[in-house]
From TrEMBL:
Organism: Flavobacterium sinopsychrotolerans
One Pfam family named in its UniProt record: Nitroreductase
Coiled-coil regions listed: none
Name this polypeptide is given: Nitroreductase
Keyword annotations of the record: Flavoprotein, FMN, NADP, Oxidoreductase
Similarity-based family: Belongs to the nitroreductase family.
Molecular function, one GO term: oxidoreductase activity
Amino acid sequence: MSTFLENQNWRYATKKFDATKKITTEDLNTLKEAIRLSSSSYGLQPYKVIIVENPELRANLQPAAWGQSQIVEASHLIIFANETNLDDLAIDDYIKNISQTRNTPIEALAGYGDFMKSKIISLSDEEKNIWTAKQTYLALGNLLNVAAELKIDATPMEGFVPAQVNEILGLDKLGLNATLIATLGYRHDEDATQHYKKVRKSNEDLFITL
Protein backbone atom coordinates (compact mmCIF):
# COMPACT_ATOMS: atom_id res chain seq x y z
CA MET A 1 0.00 0.00 0.00
CA SER A 2 2.87 2.38 0.74
CA THR A 3 4.11 1.86 -2.84
CA PHE A 4 0.66 2.65 -4.20
CA LEU A 5 0.55 5.93 -2.28
CA GLU A 6 4.08 6.79 -3.36
CA ASN A 7 3.08 6.30 -6.98
CA GLN A 8 -0.02 8.43 -6.50
CA ASN A 9 2.20 11.22 -5.21
CA TRP A 10 4.54 10.68 -8.17
CA ARG A 11 1.82 11.01 -10.81
CA TYR A 12 0.46 14.31 -12.06
CA ALA A 13 -1.38 15.58 -15.12
CA THR A 14 1.57 15.78 -17.48
CA LYS A 15 1.59 18.96 -19.57
CA LYS A 16 4.50 18.16 -21.89
CA PHE A 17 5.39 14.65 -23.05
CA ASP A 18 8.66 13.42 -24.52
CA ALA A 19 7.53 12.47 -28.03
CA THR A 20 10.62 10.26 -28.50
CA LYS A 21 9.63 7.83 -25.75
CA LYS A 22 7.05 5.16 -26.52
CA ILE A 23 5.12 2.75 -24.31
CA THR A 24 6.09 -0.87 -24.90
CA THR A 25 3.60 -3.35 -26.29
CA GLU A 26 3.76 -5.28 -23.00
CA ASP A 27 2.91 -2.21 -20.91
CA LEU A 28 0.18 -1.17 -23.32
CA ASN A 29 -1.41 -4.60 -23.01
CA THR A 30 -1.29 -4.24 -19.22
CA LEU A 31 -3.02 -0.86 -19.44
CA LYS A 32 -5.67 -2.29 -21.76
CA GLU A 33 -6.29 -5.17 -19.39
CA ALA A 34 -6.65 -2.74 -16.49
CA ILE A 35 -9.32 -0.90 -18.46
CA ARG A 36 -11.04 -4.16 -19.38
CA LEU A 37 -11.15 -5.28 -15.73
CA SER A 38 -12.56 -1.98 -14.48
CA SER A 39 -15.71 -1.99 -12.44
CA SER A 40 -18.95 -0.74 -13.98
CA SER A 41 -22.58 -0.77 -12.96
CA TYR A 42 -23.94 -4.31 -13.36
CA GLY A 43 -20.62 -5.10 -15.07
CA LEU A 44 -22.24 -3.89 -18.30
CA GLN A 45 -19.36 -1.69 -19.58
CA PRO A 46 -21.58 0.49 -21.83
CA TYR A 47 -18.69 2.13 -23.68
CA LYS A 48 -15.89 1.63 -26.16
CA VAL A 49 -12.24 2.57 -25.76
CA ILE A 50 -10.55 3.97 -28.86
CA ILE A 51 -6.75 3.89 -29.12
CA VAL A 52 -5.68 6.47 -31.69
CA GLU A 53 -2.24 5.63 -33.09
CA ASN A 54 -2.43 7.33 -36.50
CA PRO A 55 -0.33 10.56 -36.31
CA GLU A 56 -2.40 12.37 -38.94
CA LEU A 57 -5.61 11.54 -37.14
CA ARG A 58 -4.16 12.78 -33.87
CA ALA A 59 -3.11 16.02 -35.56
CA ASN A 60 -6.69 16.43 -36.80
CA LEU A 61 -7.97 15.88 -33.27
CA GLN A 62 -5.67 18.46 -31.68
CA PRO A 63 -7.77 21.54 -32.58
CA ALA A 64 -10.84 19.79 -31.14
CA ALA A 65 -8.89 19.41 -27.89
CA TRP A 66 -8.22 23.12 -27.53
CA GLY A 67 -4.85 22.75 -29.28
CA GLN A 68 -3.29 20.93 -26.33
CA SER A 69 0.14 19.52 -27.20
CA GLN A 70 -0.38 16.25 -25.32
CA ILE A 71 -2.69 15.06 -28.08
CA VAL A 72 0.19 14.77 -30.55
CA GLU A 73 3.23 14.43 -28.27
CA ALA A 74 2.11 11.60 -25.97
CA SER A 75 3.01 8.03 -26.81
CA HIS A 76 -0.64 6.97 -26.90
CA LEU A 77 -4.01 8.68 -27.11
CA ILE A 78 -7.00 6.98 -25.52
CA ILE A 79 -10.59 8.11 -26.03
CA PHE A 80 -13.42 6.78 -23.89
CA ALA A 81 -16.79 6.88 -25.65
CA ASN A 82 -20.10 6.00 -24.03
CA GLU A 83 -22.85 4.15 -25.88
CA THR A 84 -25.66 6.50 -26.81
CA ASN A 85 -28.24 3.95 -27.93
CA LEU A 86 -28.13 1.38 -25.14
CA ASP A 87 -31.02 -1.01 -25.72
CA ASP A 88 -32.41 -4.44 -24.85
CA LEU A 89 -29.98 -6.13 -27.25
CA ALA A 90 -26.94 -4.83 -25.35
CA ILE A 91 -28.28 -6.31 -22.13
CA ASP A 92 -29.19 -9.58 -23.87
CA ASP A 93 -25.62 -9.82 -25.21
CA TYR A 94 -24.27 -9.23 -21.71
CA ILE A 95 -26.49 -11.97 -20.28
CA LYS A 96 -25.20 -14.35 -22.98
CA ASN A 97 -21.64 -13.45 -22.01
CA ILE A 98 -22.37 -14.22 -18.35
CA SER A 99 -23.95 -17.53 -19.35
CA GLN A 100 -20.97 -18.58 -21.45
CA THR A 101 -18.31 -17.32 -19.04
CA ARG A 102 -19.82 -18.90 -15.93
CA ASN A 103 -21.39 -21.91 -17.64
CA THR A 104 -24.78 -20.88 -16.27
CA PRO A 105 -28.05 -21.69 -18.06
CA ILE A 106 -29.26 -18.53 -19.73
CA GLU A 107 -32.77 -19.20 -18.35
CA ALA A 108 -31.40 -18.81 -14.83
CA LEU A 109 -30.22 -15.29 -15.73
CA ALA A 110 -33.47 -14.09 -17.29
CA GLY A 111 -34.61 -12.39 -14.10
CA TYR A 112 -31.35 -10.45 -13.80
CA GLY A 113 -31.63 -9.34 -17.40
CA ASP A 114 -35.22 -8.20 -16.91
CA PHE A 115 -34.20 -6.30 -13.77
CA MET A 116 -31.47 -4.42 -15.65
CA LYS A 117 -33.86 -3.57 -18.45
CA SER A 118 -36.43 -2.26 -15.98
CA LYS A 119 -33.84 0.06 -14.41
CA ILE A 120 -31.91 1.17 -17.49
CA ILE A 121 -34.04 0.99 -20.60
CA SER A 122 -36.87 2.82 -18.88
CA LEU A 123 -34.66 5.90 -18.50
CA SER A 124 -34.99 8.79 -20.92
CA ASP A 125 -32.34 9.07 -23.64
CA GLU A 126 -30.69 11.93 -21.75
CA GLU A 127 -30.65 9.98 -18.49
CA LYS A 128 -29.22 6.90 -20.19
CA ASN A 129 -26.47 8.93 -21.82
CA ILE A 130 -25.54 10.54 -18.53
CA TRP A 131 -25.45 7.12 -16.88
CA THR A 132 -23.32 5.48 -19.58
CA ALA A 133 -20.98 8.48 -19.63
CA LYS A 134 -20.39 8.13 -15.89
CA GLN A 135 -19.23 4.55 -16.40
CA THR A 136 -16.27 5.72 -18.46
CA TYR A 137 -14.89 7.59 -15.46
CA LEU A 138 -14.60 4.32 -13.54
CA ALA A 139 -12.51 2.86 -16.36
CA LEU A 140 -10.37 6.00 -16.48
CA GLY A 141 -9.64 5.66 -12.76
CA ASN A 142 -8.28 2.16 -13.27
CA LEU A 143 -6.15 3.35 -16.18
CA LEU A 144 -4.63 6.21 -14.16
CA ASN A 145 -3.83 3.99 -11.18
CA VAL A 146 -2.16 1.25 -13.21
CA ALA A 147 -0.25 3.77 -15.31
CA ALA A 148 1.20 5.20 -12.10
CA GLU A 149 2.22 1.71 -10.98
CA LEU A 150 4.07 1.28 -14.29
CA LYS A 151 5.62 4.76 -13.99
CA ILE A 152 3.80 5.80 -17.15
CA ASP A 153 2.61 9.38 -17.19
CA ALA A 154 -1.04 10.04 -17.91
CA THR A 155 -3.17 13.10 -18.43
CA PRO A 156 -6.97 12.80 -18.09
CA MET A 157 -8.66 15.41 -20.26
CA GLU A 158 -12.17 16.83 -20.45
CA GLY A 159 -10.88 19.85 -22.36
CA PHE A 160 -12.18 19.03 -25.81
CA VAL A 161 -15.26 19.48 -27.95
CA PRO A 162 -17.07 16.11 -28.02
CA ALA A 163 -19.10 16.90 -31.14
CA GLN A 164 -15.92 17.62 -33.10
CA VAL A 165 -14.16 14.48 -31.86
CA ASN A 166 -17.26 12.45 -32.71
CA GLU A 167 -17.28 13.85 -36.23
CA ILE A 168 -13.57 13.28 -36.87
CA LEU A 169 -13.69 9.69 -35.65
CA GLY A 170 -17.14 8.88 -36.98
CA LEU A 171 -18.38 7.97 -33.53
CA ASP A 172 -21.94 9.17 -34.16
CA LYS A 173 -22.36 6.46 -36.80
CA LEU A 174 -21.29 3.88 -34.21
CA GLY A 175 -23.75 5.08 -31.58
CA LEU A 176 -20.92 6.49 -29.46
CA ASN A 177 -20.05 9.81 -27.85
CA ALA A 178 -16.58 10.88 -26.70
CA THR A 179 -16.62 11.57 -22.97
CA LEU A 180 -12.98 11.46 -21.86
CA ILE A 181 -9.49 11.59 -23.32
CA ALA A 182 -6.36 10.18 -21.68
CA THR A 183 -2.89 10.80 -23.06
CA LEU A 184 -0.17 8.36 -22.01
CA GLY A 185 3.59 8.41 -22.25
CA TYR A 186 6.59 9.86 -20.46
CA ARG A 187 7.10 13.34 -19.08
CA HIS A 188 9.51 15.67 -20.82
CA ASP A 189 12.45 17.02 -18.84
CA GLU A 190 11.24 20.52 -19.70
CA ASP A 191 7.79 20.01 -18.13
CA ALA A 192 8.07 22.28 -15.11
CA THR A 193 4.77 20.98 -13.74
CA GLN A 194 6.43 17.76 -12.56
CA HIS A 195 8.28 19.73 -9.88
CA TYR A 196 5.19 21.34 -8.37
CA LYS A 197 4.06 20.14 -4.98
CA LYS A 198 0.77 18.24 -5.14
CA VAL A 199 -2.11 20.38 -3.89
CA ARG A 200 -5.01 18.58 -2.26
CA LYS A 201 -7.51 19.30 0.50
CA SER A 202 -6.54 18.33 4.03
CA ASN A 203 -8.21 15.33 5.66
CA GLU A 204 -10.19 17.76 7.82
CA ASP A 205 -11.54 19.61 4.82
CA LEU A 206 -12.21 16.54 2.71
CA PHE A 207 -13.67 13.86 4.99
CA ILE A 208 -16.84 13.88 7.03
CA THR A 209 -17.29 11.10 9.56
CA LEU A 210 -20.84 10.57 10.81
